Amino acid sequence: MGQLMQALVRLGAAALPPTIHPMVVHFPIALLYLAAGAQGMALVTRSAQHDRFWDRAALWLLTLAGAAIAVAAAAGVISAESVHLTPDTRALLDAHQRDAVLTGLLALASWVLQVSARFPAAGRSWPDTWSLLGTGRGRVTGAACIAGVAAAVMVSITGTLGGSMVYRHCLGIPTRTCQTAAPPTRAAPP
């Protein structure tokens, strides 16, 4: 199995540009922020007349974020094949990968918590017009929202570390365009 994965990574590295990860990573970032916002709106706007729009939106956004996370992770593994790593940048890449896995696990936890939560019975206060595959599931709960917000925070931390690898350590940037000198300073205000 390990040889098959290595062959797939080599094939991806040969077929795709080395900058594929930075090209696709913005999708899970945006989707996780939107999902956390939709979960928050679902909790804030909950009422007897609530039509479950925010619950549906949050679930779809989390589902799309999960797919985007998988694509970005695969692209990251492929992009990592084309960079030269020093001991310092290897440590940064390891931390970036660890934080990305944690982000994905938090997003998955949020999705599972939301899918496993039932809406109130149809006769009580909520019309049973929508639920996940008609099971009455897919409700945003406080725990799902907390996990979603934690995933959004972690994707921010992960992205900051990834940006640091590019802009401070020039990973993935051709050496002729990267200047490793001190970063430019801002001019003092007049």
Description:
The chain is mainly α. It has one domain. The chain is built from six helices and no strands. Helix 4 runs antiparallel to helix 5 and helix 5 packs antiparallel against helix 6. The chain is globular.
List keywords for this structure.
single chain, 190 residues, mainly alpha
Number of helices: 6
Helix and strand pattern = HHHHHH
Q: How big is the Rg? A: 21 Å
The N- and C-terminal alpha carbons lie at a distance of 63 Å
Helix content: 55-70%
What kind of sheet is the major sheet? none
Global structural class: mainly alpha
Total domain modules:
1
Mean of all residue-level pLDDT scores: 83
Residue runs with pLDDT of under 50 for 5 or more positions: none
What is the overall silhouette? globular
Topology:
Elements: H1 2-15, H2 20-24, H3 26-44, H4 53-80, H5 87-116, H6 142-167
Question: Can you summarize this structure?
Answer:
The chain is mainly alpha-helical. It has helices spanning 2-15, 20-24, 26-44, 53-80, 87-116, 142-167.
